[in-house]
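Hey team,

Sharing the Uncaracterized surface protein containing fasciclin (FAS1) repeats run so nobody has to redo it. Sequence (184 residues) first:
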Amino acid sequence: MNKTSVFKSFVASTLILGSAVVALPVLAEHHAMGEKEKMTIVESAVKADNLSTLVAAIKAAGLVETLSGPGPFTVFAPTNAAFEKLPAGTVEMLLKPENKEQLQAILTYHVVPAKATSSAAIQMVQDDGGAHPAKTVQGDEITLSLEGDSLMIEDANGNKAKVIEADMMQSNGVVHVIDTVLMP
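Structure output:
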C-alpha cells in the first residue's frame, strides 16, 4: 500500500479538535523527560499554557474522554492566540451549554482519526500535486498544502492555519499546533 493510499485510508476513518515558532515550554519539558509516551493528547494540552482555551473548549464540549481514548488521532490544536482572532464574544458563546453541539463540531473538525507526522503529511501533499484532502472526525474535509516550508491547513471556508509546532507525539496520537481556528 503506498503512502497516499495509507493516508486516504487513515482520513476515511473517523473522530476531535482542532504547527514553527510558538513555544510550548511545559509540553516540551514533559517531552524532554520522556513522559510523552505516557501522556494522552488531553493530558499534555492541560500542561501547555498556550492551549488553555482549547482545553476549556474540550471540557465544555464533553470531549475529554474521547480525546483521552486510544486513538490514534492527529490533532490540529489552535493556540490561545488563535482563539483570540475570532470575533469578540465567539469563544464565550461557544462555551455555553446550549452551544455544545456546535462546539463539538468545531473541535472535531480539528481532528483526523489517524496518526500523521508532519513529514508524512508533507509527503502526501507532494504526492497529490500540492494539496491533499483529509476527512476529519467531524465528517467534513480539511485540505493540507504547503506554503514554502510551512504545512498549511485550509478549512471549508478558505481560511488557512499554519502549523507552528509540529510532531508532538503523545500516547494516543500526534499534535500539530496551529495559529488559526478552523471552521467547518
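Residues 1-34 have pLDDT under 50 and may be disordered.

Ping me if you want the raw files.
A.
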